[in-house]
Design goal:
alpha/beta, Arc Repressor Mutant, subunit A, D-Maltodextrin-Binding Protein, domain 2, five-stranded mixed beta sheet, 11 helices, 14 strands, 42% helix, elongated
Length: 325
């Protein structure tokens, strides 16, 4: 028991960046917390935390121990959850990673309602367009756009598929003209998300017709919000998921182009580690997120989440654009 408590004091100190805050959270005195931390370092014969009067930081050994003991403590918490009221009232911290755009448009707005249902559960959002390792990054839930995970221990739950669109600011189109055919994109200034699969090649379809166009960037970026900002400023034509730019389209700040041609759909998933017993905090968050998206998305963004065909989605977007004018 002492060994587990020592690890908990260490992990909480590292998480909060303060021994006194760790002591408060564990309901013990500063002196007791300090004794547990010192006993751990003495038992392991290594310095884990360096500190001065202003801050503390982990040594290399401390960083390695934090990664390993985080998994141990998480498994212990899950075991306790199975026989405690946490299964009915989740609490603690839920760490979620997603792109910045998804966090801004979906995660942040849903949190007030989610916290009202689960006030003891705190949510930590880590925005990233890369896919961090679950264990090393301490992630509980990841919002991802790939359909399959290379790790068989990762569970993938599909949220749905969404349309991607080509759009530009009215000022840009007034100056450069509207593309009438996919081949016209080769002469336009393109704003490209460089983490996409083959980002400099576009495959568009219209019925049985397929066109593949090589494009050169006026700007490429690893973040959709940077691309959106450049498009709004009139730099060029962007290629983005509809959920990122539909508000701008409805407001008339961006105009879709080549609406009779379709880009490949983008699949969005919730991913989490496979466990014998899924922690209640992951289950309730995943369920709430899927329900929230289906209830609060504009018509035509999500295809199979709303059982719509691509043609129906295109029609609804076109109607929305006309209504906004």
């Amino acid at each position: 028991m002492d060994r587990l408590l020592q690890l908990e004091v260490f992990a909480r100190t590292a998480e909060l960046g303060s021994l006194s805050k760790a002591a408060d959270s564990l309901r013990m005195s500063n002196a007791a917390a300090s004794r547990h931390l010192s006993a751990l370092e003495e038992r392991l014969a290594v310095r884990l935390i360096e500190r001065n009067t202003r801050r503390l930081w982990l040594t290399e050994a401390g960083q390695e121990l934090l990664q390993r003991c985080g998994t141990i403590l998480s498994e212990l918490a899950e075991a306790e959850d199975a026989v405690s009221d946490r299964a009915l009232s989740p609490k603690g911290t839920l760490r979620v990673t997603s792109s910045l755009s998804f966090a801004m448009i979906y995660l942040a707005p849903m949190l007030p309602s989610f916290r009202a249902l689960y006030p003891k559960l705190n949510v930590q959002i880590i925005t990233s367009n890369r896919y961090p390792d679950f264990i090393e990054a301490g992630i509980d839930v990841a919002i991802r756009t790939r359909e399959h995970e290379p790790d068989s221990n990762i569970v993938v739950r599909r949220i749905g598929q969404m349309r991607r669109v080509l759009a530009a600011a009215p000022a840009y189109l007034a100056k450069q003209g509207q593309p009438e055919h996919p081949a016209d994109l080769a002469r336009h200034d393109m704003l490209i998300y460089n983490l996409a699969n083959d980002p400099y090649s576009l495959r568009l379809t219209k019925g049985s017709a397929i066109q593949t166009v090589r494009i050169a960037p006026a700007l490429d970026s690893n973040d959709g919000q940077v691309i959106r900002g450049a498009a709004l400023a009139g730099l060029g034509i962007l290629i983005q998921p509809l959920y990122i730019v539909q508000g701008d389209i409805l407001a008339g700040h961006l105009v879709p182009v080549l609406m009779d041609w379709e880009l490949p759909l983008l699949t969005m998933n919730v991913a989490y580690q496979n466990r014998v017993r899924l922690p209640a905090k992951i289950r309730v968050f995943s369920d709430f997120l899927v329900d929230h998206i289906r209830a609060h998305s504009h018509a035509g963004i999500w295809i199979d989440a709303t059982k719509q065909s691509t043609h129906t989605a295109s029609t609804k977007l076109s109607r929305s654009v006309r209504a906004a004018k």
